[in-house]
DMT family transporter
Amino acid sequence: MNPNKAMTCTSRSRPAWHWLIPLPLLEAALLVSWSSGFIGARFSIDYAPALLVVFWRCVVVTLVLLPFVAGQLRRTSPVALLKNAGIGLLAMAGYLGGITQGIALGVPAGLAALVADLLPLGLALLAAGVLRQRLAWQVWAGLLIGLVGVMLVTQGALAWGNAPLWAYGLPLLGMLSLAVATLWQKYLPAEQSLGLLPNLWLQCCVSGLAFALVEGVHGSLAPLPSTGFALSVLWTAGISTMGGYGLYWLCLRRTTATRVASVLYLSPPITMLWAWAMFNEPLSWQMAVGMAVSGVGIWLVVGTEARQAVSSSR
């Protein structure tokens, strides 16, 4: 079965629940939950080291989901478990670790976020260069226009910090790590794909172990006895991990990797709205213009891929 066209079914006649929800609604929910991760990171830095919060968010998700996934995990082959664990290490440990460690070493948060927002372009370049996929020029144009919009939104937060030169490569490696994980997940054979909850559990489990090794070298892994720390962990575990990553993988099952990633071009302005609502940070017309420009780029990508899908199905 082709994993790109396969429809996950709960029975032979009834599609999985997420196929009953219009894709734009899933993508809108993805934007809200994905952007919440940056707000959670912003909130948590006042209470604990970034990687300590990331470690405990993985622990919380692992503990909460275990009773619901234990049976399916026991029935899954070791090869499938290893492949999905590898995807999890790249998607969570690689992505989050690269960005947070870059910021911890002095890379400005705005610059690190901009590099992370290169994900749609990174995915397209990997798909074209490694998988030899041919993307229409309208898709490339849409990706570049979307990036211009992101740069307009984040321009006020961009600065060149005092980090070691090599540290600026960490956010880039994190972005590429998620891009590789996305393509690996997209083209994983259907028989080796896990359900959403087992997939999230396994990814959080292996990434939690990785974060424990990294953070354990620098200090204690014990949770901090503060309300701020607890709220940071619960926010990022519930909204950013189960919501953000869960919806990311759901949308990936419904459409192309390029479309899913391109939608995330709207993540920076949504993050700015979060920051305005929670931290009273000012909004500007430049942010609104940037959001509109990114919207034009996404419209080009989505429209072009929709026309190609209709043409290929004839």
Observations:
- The chain has one domain: 36-313.
